[in-house]
Amino acid sequence: MITKRPRGTADATPTDTPKWQYLESVAREICRCYGYGEIRTPVFEHTELFQRTVGEFTDVVEKEMYTFEDRGGRSLTLRPEGTAAAGRLFLEAHLDAAALPAKLYYLSWPIFRYERPQAGRLRQHHQFGVECFGSADPLVDAEIITMAQDFLSAVGLADLRVGLNSMGCPECRHAYRAALREHYGPRREKLCPDCQRRYEQNPLRLLDCKVETCQELKSGLPPMGDFLCPACQEHLKKVEGYLHELGIRYHRDPSLVRGFDYYTRTVFEISHQALGAQDVVCGGGRYDGLVESLGGDPTPGVGFGLGLERLLLILEEEGVSLPSAPPLDVFVVTIGEEVRSTAFGLVQAYRRNGWRADLDVMDRSMRAQMRFADKYPARYVLILGPDELAGQQVPIRNMVSGTEEKVALKDAVGYLAEQSRVGT
């Protein structure tokens, strides 16, 4: 009998899901206010989509993707990130032919990466992300960062730190690649095997390596900011100006890079100290070449992704109170088989009037039913037995105040509405 979930995955019970639903409701409201519309895509895509956009020599593509062949021999991959799939939808749904910018969001998308599970990051985790296609305006970069911060603040996080940098444009990066090769050339033999290959194929990926010896070799490496062309410098300056005007606290982090090849110009991360070394809760940036790499016209884009498991962990560490499962409005206690049909009809009437209602289906005694109703908990308990059915009068007990009132059976549904109206 298989009783354990796969490593790097997690379950959500009815006790957990109200917290998820709360985060999702806040995210939807933030997106509504910013004018973003929801998208949904398949959980798997053609493997080439991620090879072309994320980068063939990135850690994600080389080591972390769940890739398989279907029965037709096609190579498919479980979605390892959201932006490439959103870009594919943008083109395939012809959103590029509609009024731009296209402001899109996705919520609780399963993301799959084969990596060592760590705090808040699982092999299957779930993301909230936004993508804006069509505008190169640095104001949109600032809007995306502000939107992420607004969401995190709305769910109860304070003391957030925004790190900001620029990855430059292809012209800047060409010069920086040469600088990387010059820096690492004399140290090449000390690089890990993966980085020795990256040195030749894509030296920018040397910045992502987590191997300790490779980290040490970064010492003395010139920052990307020293190689920005005037246009990229001006873009970053304008982003910083907008953030300053909005009162968004940030710091320039010259070592900040993002691990996917599609990033250009602005990159950012929002972190929180609750997770220690693994403190990033949100990351994103600009990807002006992504749509073109998929065969579309040159189309700028910018967005962010945010892991919900990691966010829930931070909120728990910070002691932020999140919603729990709502109580029942009314539980109908039954005595005897002859009242069951009437009780069931009464419960259905409550439900159709919008109340959370239930009755016993485990053949419990009256005392056990009362204990169950109290444990659930239920705000009201209605007791229905043969005598109550015969007299068409039922006691309804307020489980909070302990008071009890007899009500005509025909008025039992309206009674709850009256009690709610008067606030009891």
Overview of this structure, please?
This protein is α+β, with helices and mostly antiparallel strands. It has 2 domains: 17-169 and 229-317, Bira Bifunctional Protein, Domain 2 (BirA Bifunctional Protein, domain 2), CATH 3.30.930; 328-419, Anticodon-binding domain (Rossmann fold, 3-Layer(aba) Sandwich). Helices cover 37% and strands 22% of the residues. It contains 15 helices and 16 strands. It has helices spanning 17-34, 47-53, 59-64, 83-92, 138-154, 170-184, 193-201, 212-216, 230-246, 290-293, 308-317, 340-352, 366-375, 386-391, 412-422, and strands at residues 37-38, 44-46, 67-69, 75-78, 102-112, 124-133, 161-166, 250-252, 264-271, 280-286, 301-307, 328-334, 357-359, 378-384, 393-398, 404-408. The chain has an 8-stranded mixed β-sheet, sandwiched between helices. It has a 5-stranded mixed β-sheet with strand order 13-12-14-15-16, sandwiched between helices. Helix 1 runs antiparallel to helix 5. The longest helix has 18 residues, at 17-34. The radius of gyration is 28 Å and the shape is elongated. The mean pLDDT is 92.
Share of helical residues: 25-40%
CATH architecture call of the largest domain: 2-Layer Sandwich
Oligomer: single chain
> What is the radius of gyration?
28 Å
CATH superfamily of the largest domain: Bira Bifunctional Protein, Domain 2
CATH class of the largest domain: Alpha Beta
Estimate the global geometry from the Cα principal axes: elongated
Number of strands: 16
